[in-house]
Amino acid sequence: MNGWMGKILRVDLTRGEMREMPLDRDVAKDYIGGRGLGIYFLNRELDPDCEPLAPDNLLVMATGPLTGTGAPTGARYMIMTKSPLTGAITCSNAGGRFPTELKRAGFDGLIFAGQAKRPVYLWIDNGQAELRDAAHLWGRSTHSATDMLREETDPRARVACIGPAGERLVRFAAVMNDKDRAAGRSGVGAVMGSKNLKAVAVRGRGQISLANPERFKTFNQEILGRFKAANKKTPLGLTVNGTAGVVITTQHLGVLPTRNWQQGTFEGWEQIHGETLTAKYLVRNKACYACPIGCGRITRVEDDVFGGEGEGPEYETIYAMGANCMIDNLPAIIKANYICNELGLDTITMGATIACAMELVERGYLREDIVGRPLSWGDAAALVELTRQTGYREGFGDRLAEGSYRLAESCGHPELAMVSKKQEFPGYEPRGAQAMGLAYATSPIGGSHMRGDPAYFELFGIPERVDPLQWQGKARITKDFQDLSAIIDAAGLCIFFAVRNLAGKQLDVPPIGILEYLNAATGADYALEELIQAGERIITAERRFLTRAGFSRRDDTLPERLTTEPLPDGPAKGMVCHLEAMLDEYYREQNWSADGIPTAERLAQLGLAGEKDA
Q1: What are the residues whose beta carbons fall under 8 Å from the beta carbon of 451, sequence distance 6 or more?
Q2: What is the pLDDT of residue 223?
Q3: How many whole angstroms separate alpha carbon 440 and alpha carbon 447?
Q4: Which terminus in the chain has less CB density within 10 A, N or C?
Q5: Can you tell me the distance from the alpha carbon of 594 to that of 561, in angstroms, rounded to the nearest whole number?
Q6: 231 pLDDT exceeds 70?
């Protein structure tokens, strides 16, 4: 095969056995790779009613056919499983160097089943795999474990591992690769921890064959030129200020979630936005493999209380731990971000859960003696300490480790958790960006901007700006962006491929650039319609898993705060999110029932009707 390596490694942790299986070429073409392969295997082999932290859950790590090929941003892999945070599916995405190394070691993906009797890690050396004892790594931070694994395997090995948070089954524990790249959402790290799987270390020396190397090279040079010309001109300014540069846009449009989503603007925004991070704390940019953008930030804080050096924070971290908690102390946010990286925590859920706790305390629903300390808006020291406690499930951190929904529910007020399907939202207020509300509610993993992000056209004008306060007609373009995101995730690209390659185009966003890359790499000869249908197939296959797990329209919801309470400030003042008005149209566009269930006609059209149920 070209583009694909043609092999999947199955790991039975209970028996300590491994076997290689060929990747069926028709399956590869239909599902592309990455996110597509993940849902293919989960739908075929996993009982949707399984307990997420039980041994019978599966965990799939999968690359895409463009991962490691040199295509710009082609450095991604997906981790897919059933989430302990939501009970829904996960598709958590990360970049860095690990995904390329895994592919060059000879595998398109790994499937983990069962539970090891004691802590283990998987070592893959150029196609040869073995399970090794990890007792000496258990309890170690992600940074320490990575260093130790490279020392005992190969100094050039790449590592994906969990930290203490995953070991302690924190429901939003992350898998960290290359130390600071996070497959952060939905608790994939907790699933690894439940399986006693500490890490995957891999060294690959193989080459990724291309169907048409000259065609690929010529097209790649054209697209790279487009990227480099756009790096300082696109609205996001990713090379200059990283994703932290988004703060200025969301603040000025009134969609920067503040005070646990009670407001859309934050008075202290200038203290935490991207230009401040760059001017005061940036050491250098950092790029994933084959990425011409370099949006990663290596930062250093010289401070007696919050000092340190590491990677980040990203915009989502700054929103969740900053504005959402009313904290304008950037060193504290950076410190809490470092702690999340080292302990293996999702920064979005971490910050949002602390913000929820702050509101619960303010309203008298949660006593400070239970928290173990005073807790109020803007408390930078509490942010840092509670983040550390959560990673170890110490003190009140044991309750925070359950996420904001379970915390608020335990206090009798689940309505104060800003979630969809029990997962906390990223930093775009849907009362001022209507399609974002639809995307949050219909995301297969719960609140997420990475499974289809209308913020690009509503807020940043990519490919062109659409009125963010208008809700009519948003269903179709939201669906189109979700389809495009599925293709990007499956191909092994970063979502920022769309930011650069679509800037200045029409709102119709067919994945033409990806089509050219995939055909040159794989020789699959996709027609444009086939590739678009592959994205639709992935979306509907994920929905099929959710419906079999009991999810339906009643779960495609937003908190009443967002749908009934008008935004009190900013350019979107007085707005609510008109979710219900958009849902009917969205389901029609998907060819799902009015209750959000894929129709028999739609399943047959996408080749899903005959697939074996678990």
Answers
A1: 91, 439, 443, 444, 445, 482, 485, 486, 489
A2: 87
A3: 5
A4: C
A5: 24
A6: no
The structure's pTM equals: 0.97
Cα atoms in the Cβ-side hemisphere of radius 13 Å centred on 309: 6
Query: Six-digit token pair at 116?
Result: 């090891």
Torsion 77-83-85-90 (CA) sign: positive
The SS3 of residue 376 is: coil
User: Are the C-beta atoms of 212 and 219 separated by less than 8 Å?
Assistant: no
Computed from CA positions of residues 447, 448, 452, 453, in that sequence, does the dihedral angle turn out positive or negative? positive
Are residues 455 and 496 in contact, defined by beta-carbon separation less than 8 angstroms?
A: no
510 cis-preceded (ω within 30 degrees of 0): no
Instruction: Give me the residue label for tokens 């971490």.
Output: 350
- Rg of the chain over Cα atoms, rounded to whole angstroms, equals 22
Q: Does residue 29 have a pLDDT over 90?
A: yes
> Rounded to an integer, what is the distance from CA 385 to the centroid of its chain?
25
**Residues contacting 611, CB < 8 A, separation 6+:** 43, 44
Pairing of strands 7-12, 109-113: parallel
Mean pLDDT along residues 282-297: 94
How many Å apart are CA 213 and CA 230, to the nearest integer?
25
Place of tokens 């190969």: 154
Beta strands in 413-540 (DSSP E): 419-420, 423-424
Q: Give the span between the Cα atoms of 459 and 96, in whole angstroms.
A: 27
From CA 205, how far away is CA 8, in angstroms rounded?
17
Distance CA 161, CA 159 (A): 6
| Six-digit token string for 593 | 């029932």
* pLDDT-above-70 percentage for the chain: 96
* Residue 451 vs residue 213, higher pLDDT: 213
Q: Please name each of the domains of the chain with its CATH number.
A: 7-203 (3.60.9.10), 235-423 (1.10.569.10), 430-605 (1.10.599.10)
Nearest to 153 by CA among 106, 204, 96: 204
CA distances from 503 to 230, 463, 500 (A): 8, 5, 6
Q: How many CB atoms lie under 10 A from the CB of residue 21?
A: 10
Q: What are the distances in angstroms from CA 506 to CA 57, 462, 587? A: 42, 9, 24
Identify the DSSP state of 455: H
Which residue carries 């306060």 as its tokens? 469
Tell me the H-state helices in 322-425.
330-343, 347-362, 368-371, 380-392, 397-400, 404-410
The pair of three-digit structure tokens given for residue 348, joined into one six-digit string: 């979005």
Give me the residues paired with residue 183 across strands: 175
Render 107-133 in DSSP notation, one character per residue. Answer: -SEEEEES--SS-EEEEEETTEEEEEE
pLDDT band, residue 43 (cuts 50/70/90): very high
The pLDDT value recorded for residue 225 is: 84
